[in-house]
Design a protein that fits this description.
alpha+beta; 4-stranded mixed sheet; globular
Length: about 450
């Protein structure tokens, strides 16, 4: 099968280029199904070791054995890109996957969010993640598994708490800010305004130590790495490694509907034009396409959970039909899921796809709960805000080192699970090594404070 898929792949690439797709080279590799599952769970072929990935692996394995999930491919943007094909796939399925991957590769090269991320993080994240794993393995040898695991507990618990708008590489806060002169300094200021040594004038300007942080800081990984009072170098390296990988994953998360829809649109289109594929294999590939892009609840004609492949595919088809390919390529470059859904998920398309908000009663009756298109868009996008994490920011640090965090529950629109939040604060306190306090609201919307005192 390897020779056949290589032949088909070359011809599909020719079709893709002729249709205007443009991408960095992609390296394809067939791997065992078990390896595919590991890559999907860890997010990268080689990544830092941690027990949380084992928990995710067990969940994914159960879903797979129950028939609730199927991994056709895993693709990593870059230059070159890398794509892994499941060895258990049929020839028809892997032919579809090659076309699907080329859609992903075109999207990641031209989408602004992906482009900016790859410029900051680099175009070889697979190799960089392997370097991170080797660094952590060395730390385990030197520091012991228990100490390293404590740091990974904290860093990975905060992996979604970055600030993509401030960038991967940031300068430290200013140590001092200009102070306000008092009325007693009037003569002194007038004296220093006289012509003379400018260095003396600068030295005479009052200064005061800047507050820490000078503004609410939502990039918790960066703040801990930079300002934790007793963080050791190897601990800081772990936080920065997790942060770098989070910057890489953010565009994948923020453009999932667009990206999966774009890849699905192009694999369907390229397969239709691939007249070199035998009829029986084409039909098998189209069946695989139908499995990928159907709604989760297709038997009821009610999408109780949105399938990003299905929604994105249908939206891109609508855009191509109504706005044309040139506009579609512009949207692919400029938008993310937030603007894509708000601007191009129309009431007419939602009606056609039966994409409403539904409720299911205990006796199994499914009813439409909300038909308003803006409410539908909000429901689709709500899990995507703030990288899917609660909006928590550093508010201040006391003189005794107590770290104050504040949860912006108003913009979040939700409270926190107190037990889970306390567990995360416990992880954080072990690396901050001073008390940690979080102001939030509970599940009932009542104000509460969660403390992690010094050990």
């Amino acid at each position: 099968m390897a020779a056949a898929i290589e032949t088909y792949g070359r011809r599909i690439e020719e079709l893709a280029r002729a249709q205007g797709l443009d991408y960095f080279p992609v390296q394809f590799e067939e791997v065992p199904d078990s390896f595919m599952m590991e890559v999907a769970v860890y997010g990268l072929p080689v990544r830092m070791p941690h027990w949380s990935f084992g928990v995710r692996y067990i969940y994914q394995l159960i879903q797979h054995r129950m028939g609730h999930s199927r991994l056709f491919e895993v693709v990593f943007p870059g230059n070159p890109g890398r794509a892994y094909l499941a060895r258990g796939n049929s020839l028809a399925e892997n032919t579809l996957v090659v076309a699907h991957v080329l859609g992903h590769a075109d999207f990641s090269r031209h989408n602004e969010l992906f482009r900016r991320s790859q410029q900051e993080v680099g175009y070889r994240i697979v190799d960089q993640a392997a370097d991170h794993a080797r660094q952590i393995a060395a730390a385990i040898e030197e520091q012991g598994a228990a100490r390293v695991e404590q740091v990974l507990d904290a860093a990975l618990a905060l992996e979604a708490h970055i600030d993509v708008f401030r960038g991967l590489r940031r300068e430290a806060y200013p140590e001092f800010v200009a102070g306000q002169a008092t009325s007693d300094d009037t003569f002194r200021q007038r004296f220093h305004q006289l012509p003379g040594d400018e260095r003396a004038v600068a030295a005479a300007e009052p200064r005061r130590r800047a507050p820490l942080p000078p503004h609410p800081e939502k990039d918790l990984l960066w703040f801990i790495a930079r300002y934790a009072p007793e963080l050791e170098g190897w601990e800081r390296d772990i936080f920065l490694a997790v942060r770098e990988e989070s910057f890489y994953f953010y565009p994948v998360f923020a453009c999932q509907i667009m990206n999966e829809g774009w890849a699905s649109y192009w694999h369907a289109r390229l397969l239709r034009e691939a007249d070199f594929i035998p009829q029986h294999e084409y039909l098998d590939a189209i069946k695989a396409h139908s499995d990928v892009v159907r709604p989760h609840a297709a038997d009821r004609q009610a999408s109780l959970a949105i399938n990003p492949y299905h929604l994105g595919f249908c939206m891109w088809e609508s855009i191509m039909d109504n706005l044309g390919p040139q506009k579609a390529f512009e949207i692919r470059a400029q938008d993310d899921d937030f603007s894509f859904v708000r601007n191009y998920l129309t009431a007419e398309l939602a009606e056609e796809l039966k994409l409403f908000r539904y409720t299911a009663s205990a006796n199994g009756v499914v009813e439409v709960a909300e038909r308003d298109i803006n409410a539908l868009r909000d429901a689709i996008l709500a899990p995507k805000y703030n990288f899917g994490a609660p909006a928590v920011a550093v508010r201040g640090v006391d003189t005794d080192g107590t770290l104050h965090l504040a949860h912006d529950h108003a913009s979040d629109g939700r409270g926190l699970d107190a037990d889970r939040a306390a567990r995360v604060l416990g992880y954080l306190q072990r690396v901050w090594r001073r008390p940690v306090r979080l102001e939030t609201v509970d599940g009932r919307g009542e104000a509460c404070v969660i403390d992690a005192p010094a050990a």
